[in-house]
Amino acid sequence: MPHIENQAVIDLLAQDPGQNTLAMAQQLGISEGEVIRALPRDMVTLWSGEQSEALLGQLATWGKLTTIVESCGSIFEFKGPLPAGRVGRGYYNLMGDDGLHGHLKLDDIAHIALLSKPFMGTESHAFVFIANTGRCAFKIYLGRDEKRRLLPEQQQQFLAWRQQAALPAIALQS
């Protein structure tokens, strides 16, 4: 028998398959991480948060992505390459010259969800970094071309990784 939150998430999904996970969490009064973990397995694969640094290093080579951070109801969105980073003073420091910068507290990331869920009627895939509290620290969505189509190389790699229990060892090579 499914857990009550799992069934509530499934029910909301049946009503509106395109509803975003943050809105579902707010509607149910649970964390977004709980919503994501309750989604059907054909939509989500969970990896350990311990893989955050290695994954971010790989994503820095992927080109255009969309990084999203929600804070107090506001949503910040950056479209462009994820800069390479390195660990220092307890943070993973994004080292780009232009565009996105930041200092990520990766030791607070419990899970990385590889999420495949339609959004606003279009196919969508994201890496969702879920904090120990269950809140989403940030999300990185696959990039799109000028016609709003997913970038095929990114989509192929993402879907291949969704089949893995963890970031494949070959991907850790620089």
Automatic annotation (TrEMBL):
It comes from the Bacteria. CDD domains: ChuX_HutX-like. InterPro entries: Heme_Transport_Util_sf, HutX-like. Signal peptide: none annotated. Transmembrane segments: none annotated. NCBIfam families: HutX (TIGR04108). This is Heme utilization cystosolic carrier protein HutX. It comes from Pseudaeromonas sharmana. The gene is hutX.
